[in-house]
Amino acid sequence: MSSQLIWLIFLLPVISFLIISLLIKPFVNRESRIAGYLTILAIGTSLALSLLTLSAVMSAPNHKIEVPDISWLTIGNLNVHVGLLVDSLTAVMLVVVTLVSLMVQVYSLGYMKDNWDHGNTAYHRYYAWMSLFTASMLGVILADSLLLVFVFWEMVGLCSYLLIGFWFHRPSAANAAKKAFIVTRFGDFGFLVALLLIFAKTQTFDIEELYGIAGTAVLAGSVLTWAAIGIFAGAMGKSAQFPLHLWLPDAMEGPTPVSALIHAATMVAAGVFLVARTLPIFVHSIEALTTVAIIGAVTAIFAASMGLVMTDIKRVVAYSTISQLGYMMLGLGAAGIGIARGGETGIEAAKAAAAVGIFHLFNHAFFKALLFLGAGSVNHATGTFDMRLMGGLRKAMPWTFATFLIASLSLAGIWPLSGFWSKDEILAVALENQPVLFYLAMITVFMTAFYIFRVLFLTFGGEYRGTSHETHVPRGAHGGHGPHLHESAPVMVAPMVALSVLAIASGWWNASGGFARFMGEEHVEAIGFFGVLTHGLPWLSLIVAGSGILLAYLMYSRKVISAERIGSAFKPLYTLFSRKYYFDELYENIIVRKILIGGLFVGLEKIDTYGVDGVVNTVAKGAYADGKALRRLQTGQLQLYGLVIGIGILAIILVLYLFG
Amino acid sequence: MSFSYLSAIVFLPLVGAILVALFGGGREKLVKYLSAVFTAVPLVIAVIAFLNFDRSAGASIYQFEEKAVWIPALNANYHLGVDGLSLPLVALTAFLGLMVVLISWKIHTRVREYFAWLLLLEASILGVFASLDLLLFFIFWEIEIIPMYFLISVWGSGRKEYSSIKYVIFTLAGSALMLAGILSVYFTTGSLDIVDLADKQLAMVQSIMPASLIFFLLITGFAVKLPVAPLHTWLPDAHTDAPTAGSVMLAGALIKMGGYGIIRVVSFFPQVARDYAPLMLTLAVISVLYGAAVTLRQTDLKRLIAYSSVSHMGLVLLGAFALTEVSLTGAALQMVSHGLLTGLLFAMAGFTIHNVEERRLDKLGGLARQMPVAAVVFSIASLGSLGLPLTSGFAAEFITLAGSFSSQVVNGAPVFTLLAAIGVVLAAGYILWLIQRTLYGPVKEQYNEVKDADTLERVYMFTFVALIVLVGIYPAVLTDIIKLGIAPIAGLFG
């Protein structure tokens, strides 16, 4: 497969962005749908090319395609080149991103139909940014140097900022967008420092060169650990890992399809991808890997606990994303520790170790996108995201219900749906390398099954509770249609059905170890589709997940157990979860408002005004009087003054030519 | 004799100023067209010079040289010439010169004087960058004060008398020290020639004055202009109260004279620069962090941008005194990049203030709806200033930081660099706050009549954006030239 075609995967969405923003937006009627069709065409073609790339990589030797570099910038010892790194990790991610993005773009045709802003050019703007968002994420995946990854990494951040703040006239959206950007930028600071450190030590940013250098005397020991932790800090920001998780739940201020894209394929996936990409560097530092694993496991259970009590359907799903990303990090960390302890820290072994985490990313992308699209569909019908105002939607929205059920089962990890396969592998690798974290992960399995079925029963089960529409509808994108329950348009249902097929089947790729082999694992135990049920661990996790579902059923469907009573019995815990462990208060009110803006910076400003400038003003006051007098002399005669200067300079020129 | 590129670039705006002053009375259109022509032609020549600059190996460092004896008794020459460091700055100034004329198209008070001063200002800044003789350099440096003073005090706003006087006093105090420095250089070496001095590297520690004293005399003058905290307090006032074109020129080109001078002084005194690098780097870090922290407290649109300049120019000082080829190139690129970004930011702030008639951030808001085109441009300028990749801001900051962090010349350079990099995080805070407070949020009814950018305004806005993105995506367009000027300087430090 020629490298030009691989470049096109990235360039097509870029071209679509440029055409929409430079040609369509200024010159085409704002009612026109052409921006949407163009984006779908571009990303659809990218998907086709990604599938071609995947098959080409599968048949290529070492699962890798060489693409020539372009020299970009040379200053002293700073050499920057631009190129693509196409290996199995790249190929898998390309398919995930283009596929999910395509589904989301198609769905948006229906979803954004009623949601544009009163004749504004929002429709074009939406698709321009969606194109750029997808392109940036593809850039992160394809880039062959860490510097280039960082460039697109920041572009992903920018696009999420623009899309979360899509309805920028709402203060809540503008705030959420700003929060997302600033919180992730804290992580990016770590990434930046890691880049500086790596450059200072190795004089290169090239990922494959770094694979070779890592572990040698040039890059080893504490320097390598710090560089790895810096990279991980960047990943923590993007993948919303504790304690940089704050931005993601607020990020649903954007349109729901945007959330689907952010949570499934772009943005949050970037963090996990980055760790997977640099895992051959991480494996030389057990400390860094342990950090990754611990942060992952803690995030998984911590986010799941908050998901238990939220009443906004999108928020529950958002916390579920954070929790699942924690799983992926745990998978990467634990698998890395496994090979680091085994002493085989070769590049291929390290790349293969990423298979566990990336496989969960792969499966998660489909069922999580589906959950968000389902939430959007529900919102379309009810005009709200508040589950207390829903219920009984099963009858009115059979397709949405069916697909949401499939996604929920997949998320809960029920055999034989996709989530089962990858979660099981993470649990296995955690049990082997980090037993303590395994128990945290197991508790999370229970919580996950419980909260997602709580959503399912509250939303689709029982009777509709939203008829008393005097209740304040907090927000939501609705075109003024009241509680007129209906299934969404076919253009929205079709992508959901397509994703639900993947949510069932994508996990089968690794049922007999195909995915792991593709990622470079040599010794794969072929367990088999049914063979997996002959092992103990899968049964344990199935039982735990099943009891979570059962509890949700008893509490929210049969109502045998009163949710209120449990809530009041565990009041302090309930409050702690629903107030999100008070992290928002800690960061925003105490650290930012009180200590920094209100304290330190005020102090500095006072110093500036009264200290530094005070001295100056004392001197200047005297001069001011003189200046006033001087100015009075000049008023009205400026032209003369200018003329005099002009003549003076002319004289200099004359002198010059006379004597020169 | 071949065409005198530099004389033409420097003196055409001056000729324009004289013509405007002589014939511009009462004829507003004529004044504006004259000004546009006499700034557009130097820009074209500067672009041609930029393209014709010999980049081959073995080409002379200084090109387009013109030399004529001026004051033989002082060994002072009329000596112009540019190297890789100064040529981009000449081109930047010529570019901004034309842009500020377009930006000022809506000026209707005392048009003739206004444009005459504006053109004189451009000529003097160009002269500073093009001079290779210290006396000539100093004269251009001093001339610049006069037009700037009048631009602020007559066409400014707010406490304009205070600000303009403050500007003059600060600059004069700085240049008094600088003059003393230049004279000391002259009396110790008998030369005023910048090329000569760089070659000699002023190995004159045994002269009557210690080299470090001369170094600090010169550096202080430049540090006022850059500005380096704590010598920066003239800048927020001058920027805030200057007319839009004045702010653009001030932030875009004028303060670059400081950075340019500092890099030149480093090349004269490599040993002293190395000895005092930790001190200078400390000042750089203070400028970056302190500037950013104070920026976060600002409530006035222009004042906020002004303080952010203090922070951004701190990076120039950082790159200059990390003393490596990469860091010095980064510092030079940061100057050009900041000129474009902050030039555009001030243009956008001026545009907003002119159209909305409000400059307090707590009163603004929701303008993205009423002025969508301007909002996009404003956002791009802001994001560039925040250091977003694919804008010149990122390229410059990253090269500076990468060069400084890996410096083997100065001990502790990584620590200084890390501290300065925190400024990048703080920048995200104030820039996003600025955008949100100005453009986002609920639409305000009282601004429904606010006009978006008209055709002329779009022309200059888009030109700025195109350059910012060009440099951001392909920084080599500038760094390939800059490094030719920087390599000999970096070579002094091994």
Folded structure, characterized:
The complex is a heterodimer of chains A (660) and B (494). In chain A, a hairpin with a 2-residue loop joins strand 2 (70-75) and strand 3 (78-82). Chain A has helices at residues 3-27, 34-59, 88-111, 122-142, 146-164, 171-202, 207-213, 221-238, 247-250, 256-264, 268-277, 279-282, 286-307, 313-342, 347-353, 355-382, 393-396, 398-412, 418-433, 435-460, 490-505, 514-518, 536-557, 563-569, 571-578, 583-634, 638-659, and strands at 64-65, 70-75, 78-82, 86-87. In chain A, strands 1-4 form a two-stranded antiparallel ribbon. In chain A, helix 13 (286-307) runs parallel beside helix 20. The radius of gyration of chain A is 28 Å and the shape is globular. Chain A is built from 27 helices and four strands. Chain A has 660 residues and is mostly helical. The relative contact order of chain A is 0.07. Chain A starts with a helix and ends with a helix. Helices cover 73% and strands 2% of the residues of chain A. Chain B is 73% helix and 3% strand. Chain B has a two-stranded antiparallel sheet with strand order 1-2. In chain B, a hairpin with a 4-residue loop joins strand 1 and strand 2 (76-82). Chain B is globular, with a radius of gyration of 21 Å. Chain B starts with a helix and ends with a helix. The chains are: A mainly alpha (660), B mainly alpha (494). Chains A and B meet through strand 2, helix 5, helix 6, helix 26 and helix 27 of A and helix 1, strand 1, helix 4, helix 6 and helix 7 of B.
